[in-house]
Amino acid sequence: MGTGSTVVKVVFVICALFVVFSFFENMFLETTYGLDIIQTVVSRIFQPILNIFGIKIPGFPRAGIPLTIDTRWTICPAWIIVEPNGTIWYQVTPQKLMAYGGSPGVAGYSWSKPTGGRSPPSGITIDPQTGVLRGTGGALPKSGTYYFDVEVSDGTSTASVTFSIEVKKYVKKAGPIPDPGPPYAEFQQPLMQTIQLPDGKAGQPYGATLYVMGGKPFYSWRLDSTYKSNFTLAGLTLDASGGLVRGTISSEMAGQTIRFKVIVRDNTGEVAIGEPVYEIYVKP
Asked: How far apart are CA 157 and CA 99, in angstroms?
């Protein structure tokens, strides 16, 4: 009697589980948030019961691209500059860290140091909302290579990576011709004609940040209205303060390529040189 009752309970629980899963699947399967809801229902209601019988339900795959920090862009060196009269000052080239994937939603991405991770060296900070690495105005440490850890979150998932930055020392030479000092990057977008952003998928969430370096943060971003683009029709938006492309890609864009240009200004109103065409291929 006891064994038969146990079998009936197991069958009942499994059947109920699949009924609920099918219901939520039809409503939410195409969105990351829907999968979160399904997983929550399973883990909080059914899994404790199934644990009694040693039955485990695997996690459901998430829609879209996994959240990732893009490490293709090298962090520019920071400089300790010594003037001929002995005055010391510091030069840190601002640049935007890159991330893509996940489901950034309204809040976008947030940047931080992972638990137990290493901070950037003194004199350097990363803005938690925009992911812009910049100088604080304070002193840099002595010359050398420094490693630091960065974590990005879309509100539901995280990704982390280790970056390095080289601190160099430059002593200006005295003479009739002023020493220009170490190289300094112009305020610029990537100096390429075309940049391929990560592929998207029709009907699913998309997120990707755009790159800029130099100038004086903070930056402002807008679409270049002089370029004929299908960006807005694709269901995407451009975050004006964070340079984040996000949204749910329209199902009608399946098999097509989204193309657009942006204009970036810094805190002084200067416009970044370079204006590549960004492309996003939309998988069916």
From this structure: 13
